[in-house]
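Batch job 17 of 40 flagged for manual review because the log was empty.
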Amino acid sequence: MSRPLVIIGGGITGLTAAYLAARAGEKVVVLEGSPQAGGLLATFTVNDTRLEHYYHHFFTHDAEIRWLVHELGLDDHLQFNPATMGIFRDGRLYDFNSPKDLLRFAPLSFAGKLRFGATSLYLGKLADWRRHEDVPALEWFYRYAGRAATEAVWRPMLEVKFGPFAGQVPVAWMIGRLKQRLGSRERGDERLGYLRGSLNVLLDALLKELSALGVKIVPQARVDKLIIRQNALAAVQTTAGEFEGARFLATIPTVHLAPLLREVRPDFARRLAEIKYFGAVCTLLELDRPLSQVYWLNVADAGFPFGGVIEHTNFIPSSVYGGRHIVYLSRYFEVGNALTGMPESEIARMMIEPLNRIYPQFDRSHVRQAHVFRTLTAATVCDLQFSHKVPPVVTPLANLYLATMAHVYPDERSCNNSIRVAANACRLLGIEAPVVPTGASLSGQIGMG
């Protein structure tokens, strides 16, 4: 019997790769370390409706996820709704959706607003990320957007997301971020995508299709050892047994893969270990009333434990959740930060406590339920010249291939970009994936040669 393609990791990257490979006639086994597949697609139930732990939406130009939705027969679940954005700065909440809103943004002078608008448009529409990898974003913003705009908007946002690494983030990453945001806007109005019933609908449909294609998904199969024969990876030893394969595609975070390679390829293991990851915590509140009319609020004032307030029910009606108003309080953190091991009850208390500094009408009694979700591998730390750290899909160890979060750079982590990375990695495995369209994403370019 021919040996299968073994995919290590059952998140959206691994599952998409499994779908493409099985569709092309490959025998596929997916090894997932946790009790169930899905990774960051994880959801939970609010009033009989599933809701995401981490992901919030996708963009109108995300062609890859729209392709997968269509493939799985879920077009009737797809919706694009208006979304509003705001900034909390100097103790005041500002709408931040249109040129008129920018003109009303008091922390900037008229000249500062012009510089902010011009530099944002340049990065989001014209700039080539390849020419901006060795320049720190903050340095570039201070020089071109001006001190006022940098201090009022960009520096707080980068510090909340990247913490001590904020000064090392290249302009290239900002180009990827702004291309996504500006690409979803038309005349100042933004529409974002969502699947009725949450991404769990996508996950369920994908798992059913994989089963129909004969893909074997093995839960609780954490890889403990790589078995090398004749200078090639021949099998992996896991908590669920040993699995042989003709080829192996690892989609797990490089921080988990590097220790497995230390003995067999120490040079490559050291390279992978250079890639650092951020953790993320999302405190999700079920409220009995709304906080505001804004969907996505960036918090640019110091002293808050969260960097964003995402009022989900200003995007999807609260009636979907039995009248509950859903709010995410999101925060990235460096591994080793106090949030790494802080009890969930303490995280919830810390996040809720300062809310009335933004929303004076808010009271703790408005919270009907609080949920805390945390991951230590939410995103890679993209520092200067990060493209040099992105590993090749075709690794130095024969039969081992990679498709990881690092391959999303210079774009930002998203379900859509994971699909793009999986499709491009499959092509290097010799699996034809011409069915996957190429959207506006900048991901899946590096390490694919």
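Reviewer: the log was empty due to a logging misconfiguration, but the result itself is present. The first strand starts at residue 5 and ends at 8. Unflagging and moving on to job 18.
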